[in-house]
Design goal:
alpha/beta, 13 strands, two-stranded parallel ribbon
Length: 333
């Protein structure tokens, strides 16, 4: 059966992508360092879900892919045709506090995965980029052809560096790759450091929610099911090495796509939907904008729709209640 190596398999998107690959009959080799950036109990619970549902078709290795020796040793003798590289040090604000962590995980780690893909001659490497790379771009929606050389955070800079590293490997070694710029992903099994999780927990407990920039923020919120559909569509469609320009501009076998909901939601509206789903008014604490934050994100998904058949179906009105229902179950476990 087809086998895919999934990095960050204990993470939010990684676990969800692994589950979707396994559900359709593929085999998955997952790797993750299970670090303590947020509570590892959530990561262990995600892995338990995968093991319980899919048994030995899901193999897992705890390792740091920024260590090339550890990566090579763990995967020796194991075959896989494709890689979905979703592991990274996430978080815009944390990159201000711990920049060295981002250099190791996101730069050295990405290089190690490129070298692994080259050595194994994989059919396709799909990797996670981020909407953060668009920085303070004023023109919306954000298009993959936009200039992205003014990142507002080190996290964004590392993600743009990943795209440039991948372009060089596509050119030098004809390694087929697809980079996916994710836009504010939320949903069941999400990350505790993200706004949707933080606000839901605080509203349920009657605590003030931190509203940055006095709420003058807009985000393209994308439900996890739509992100997974986009990742699998990319996974199954390696860009051709035909000399023709791909989405993002490369003439090598390297494409870039936005995966978003193509809707720009004001923060106030999302808070109102959370209040409605929870059944309690939020107590707001207005704060200035944080270093590295951007005011607005909005994805142009035309090329992803054209090339991958990507078509998000979950609106924020439907997605917020689904997340809140899952969160209540998790909190009551």
């Amino acid at each position: 059966m087809p086998t895919t190596l999934v990095t960050g398999a204990a993470g939010f998107i990684g676990m969800s992508v692994a589950a979707a690959l396994l559900a359709r009959g593929d085999r998955v080799i997952g790797i993750d360092s299970l670090n303590d950036y947020y509570d590892p109990a959530l990561k262990h619970a995600r892995l338990a879900q995968l093991r319980a549902a899919f048994g030995d078709r899901f193999a897992f290795h705890r390792l740091d892919f920024a260590d090339p020796g550890e990566l090579t040793a763990a995967l020796k003798g194991q075959d896989f045709e494709r890689i979905v590289h979703l592991g990274a040090q996430a978080g815009v604000r944390y990159s201000v506090e711990r920049p060295e962590v981002y250099g190791q995980a996101n730069l050295v780690g990405h290089l190690n995965l490129l070298e692994l893909a080259r050595a194994r001659r994989v059919e396709h490497l799909v990797y996670a980029s981020s909407s953060s790379i668009y920085g303070g771009n004023a023109a919306v929606p954000f298009c993959v052809e936009d200039r992205v050389d003014r990142p507002l955070s080190l996290y964004a800079a590392t993600k743009r560096a990943n795209e440039l590293m991948s372009e060089s490997y596509a050119h030098l070694f004809r390694l087929p790759q697809t980079g996916l710029r994710f836009f504010t992903v939320y949903g069941p099994w999400g990350r505790p450091d993200m706004m949707m999780w933080i606000f839901t927990g605080k509203i349920l407990r009657g605590e003030p929610i931190p509203v940055f920039n006095q709420g003058r923020m807009e985000r393209d919120f994308t439900f996890i099911d739509d992100i997974v559909a986009g990742v699998l569509a990319a996974h199954d469609r390696a860009p051709a090495d035909d000399g023709k320009a791909k989405s993002g501009g490369s003439v090598g076998p390297h494409a870039l796509y936005n995966l978003g909901n193509h809707r720009c939601e004001p923060l106030g509206r999302v808070i109102a939907l959370l209040e409605q789903a929870i059944g309690r008014r939020a107590v707001r604490e207005d704060l200035p904008i944080q270093p590295g934050d951007v005011v607005r994100t909005f994805a142009d998904i035309d090329s992803a729709t054209r090339d991958l058949g990507y078509c998000p179906t979950t609106t924020i009105d439907d997605g917020v209640p689904r997340f809140v229902a899952w969160f209540r179950e998790w909190a009551d476990r």
